[in-house]
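Table S2 (continued). Query chain:
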Amino acid sequence: MATVSGLFDNYDEALAAVSRLEAFGTDRSDISIVANNADDWYGRRPADVETDSKAGEGAASGAGLGAVVGGAGGLLAGLGLLAIPGIGPVVAAGWLVATGAGAVAGAAAGGAVGGLVGSMVSEGVPEDRANVYAEGVRRGGTLVSAKVPDDRIVEAQAALDDEVSVDLVERERAYRGEGWSRFDPDAPAYTTEEVTKERARYRI
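Corresponding output:
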């Protein structure tokens, strides 16, 4: 199995990518999502959205989240709230949270950098790319990762690399142009206002 990932500025676009992954047969247990929640969008979800207190217990308890779940079903039923060092509040679900619980909580992963970067590196994502993904989430983005068989890597990555996904090379260039070098878990999390401004910079 290999790990493929995509970064999205818009949460709804990330969910569309999840649907594409599922459409060609990726099991939802092999999909993970981590979304910035600095603006508390998840806390303000409509009251009529169904919640299931048991649907996400596997992933939630594995990540030390308890049974904080919600959403409309499927992967979304496993969404839980947590804080990641350097990123702040996120809404997350799936194996990246459950299997990398210690790293997501800030512990080191296999000698690599802790936090979200450590979780990704431990699952085979190159550290330089993991740093950009983590910084993208810090600035308001949503990360979608999936475990897929080696013979489906191209197909799965294509499902994540559509016209609305972040061009990681271009985004890294923009970050570095501002003096950024790597994700810093000790940096202050972005405020709601900073996240709103950052998202607006890349809005088409």
